[in-house]
Amino acid sequence: MADQMEWANALTNRPSLEAAVTDAVKQATSLLAGPADLGLVFISSAFTSEYSRLLPLLNEQLSVPVLIGCSGGGVIGTSQWGDTQELEAEPALGLTLARLPEVNVTPFHVVAEELPDLDSSPDSWINLLGVPPSPTPKFVLLSGTLSSGITDLLQGLDFAYPGSVTVGGQAIAGSMGGRAALFYNQNLYREGTIGVALSGNIVLETIVAQGCRPIGKPRQVTKGDRNIILELDDEVPLIVLRDLIASLSEKERMLAQNSLSVGLAMDEFKQDLHQGDFLIRSILGVDPSAGAIAITDYVRPGQRLQFHLRDAQASVDDLELMLQRYKKQQVSGSSAFGALMFSCVGRGEGLYGKPNVDSQLFRRYLDNIPLTGLFCNGEIGPVGGSTFLHNYTSVFGICRSLSGQD
């Protein structure tokens, strides 16, 4: 029988970095029965001036063959008392150590200049990462700024590794002009993307909660140019939108002023579209003279879309719906051993008015799964079979063993 999978999570809010590292290492190592194969470290932007000290301090007390991590707007984790916390706007450090028997763990760091052209062969991407396509790998990515080429990398991974699953997030820079930090074994990087590929005896299942609810009815793009919607159902888009807003309640009309988004249908063959069937994208602006609407993604004629609203209640309802769907689809007899959470810095206490909402909702449906993660500047997860960079989203990656012997 194979060794058991183990996922030991530590979370600390000690204000001194030395004390935080000692505390986190002590907590995490005490929960493991053997040496770890992978370490994940997340540090809050309250420690911005001390990012360069983190890895030397960790390496004094911890030996792990692969260690990746990054800075975030806050840190999420299961504390030593077993409760899950989202530590925002305060010093926080999260450390996860995983024992992954029969799993190949391959780390990598890539910068935008190294990425192949999107019309390159799959081999170009495979050679870049040094990750074979079989058995199908699962990816965890942590990226720097948008100039890291993360959107091209996601397209390349989907192309070169069909059937793979990718989750992750964008690191957040600190205050006062600080820069985001990416941690990779002994190295601190400020640009590019670091990641780890997990192949073999592991399954990575995802929940992507985009925090919106649809309003109105689905419409079809009858004319578009790149990211600009020029016609909806042969009508002027801005007139369609104004008519829709006029039909809303007063509360919804107020909400639409700041929280209106567009959902792009991901399955062109599905006739009956519901919440969760859309990729949510922001509205960049409108052209009153042409009546056009610009969004943060390309559109094409024939594509269906629906306007969406986002608020605290919609976010809770959406995550609960996703959790309920996941729970129904769970394979009996195969329990998860750990989970990752990448949540937008625009969620959390700022959205809900109280802490720990998303993580506690996760634990209500999926109890006893150690949870680790951070607040990001963009969240990575699949929708409709392709992987995207999201905003205002909580992405969960749930780890199981392929053999079910965990």
From TrEMBL:
It is found in: Cell membrane. Residues 237-383 form the FIST C-domain domain. It is a multi-pass membrane protein. One of its GO terms (cellular component) is plasma membrane. Transmembrane segments: none annotated. The keyword Transmembrane applies. Keywords: Cell membrane, Membrane, Transmembrane, Transmembrane helix. Residues 35-236 form the FIST domain. InterPro entries: FIST_C (IPR019494), FIST_domain_N (IPR013702), UCP018953 (IPR016741). SMART domains: FIST, FIST_C. Its main location: membrane. The keyword Magnesium does not apply. This is FIST C-terminal domain-containing protein.
